[in-house]
Amino acid sequence: MTRQKSLALLAIVVIGSFAFAQHQRKPESDSIATLMKEREQTLLQLVEIAKQSFEQGDGSIDSVIEAERDLLDARLESATTRQERIEIREAQLDLATQQEAKINKLTALGVVSPKDSKTAKVNRLNAEIELLREKQTRE
To answer: What kind and span of H or E run contains 4?
Structure first.
């Protein structure tokens, strides 16, 4: 076999292998996307359950906060553009700000400890920092 034929055959094998690998990855990425959507829907249901439990006195504010944070984290992981990530980071900041205000009221009423109030403040500050970092990154 001549050198040109050998190189041509090698190129065909490499290109074919790459195409096969790409074809094999597509179903995997589709299944990942499907699983991520299912996770997001489940977390949305979990948020609703946690809120209802807290409102009925059966659950803790920590459960609500954790469920809401997990939902936004899942959405952030699913985001495909910088703009989507910024919007989710803004939602995280809004959520953290609302949670801080609620917890401060509950602290003033003696329902939760001052430690919870400080934790909520740290969570809000972290959300602000992450939003600013996201805005400063380039795609």
So the answer is: helix 3-55
What's the domain range around 86?
A: 3-136
Please, how many CA atoms are within 13 Å of residue 131, restricted to the half-sphere of its CB? 17
> 57: number of CA atoms within 13 Å, CB side?
1
Confidence (pTM): 0.68
Per-residue pLDDT of the chain (139 residues; tens, 9 = 90+): 555 555 555 446 556 555 555 555 456 678 998 999 999 999 999 999 999 999 999 988 788 888 999 999 999 999 999 999 999 999 999 999 999 999 999 999 999 899 999 999 999 999 999 999 999 988 6
The number of folded domains in the chain is 1
Distances (CA, A) of 73 to 15, 22, 39, 85: 38, 28, 11, 10
**CATH, residue 71:** 1.20.1440
Answer for the pair 102, 68: CB distance below 8 angstroms, yes or no. Answer: no
Contacts of 103 (CB under 8 A, 6+ apart): 61, 112, 116, 117, 119, 120
Q: CA triplet 100, 103, 107: central angle to 5 degrees?
A: 135
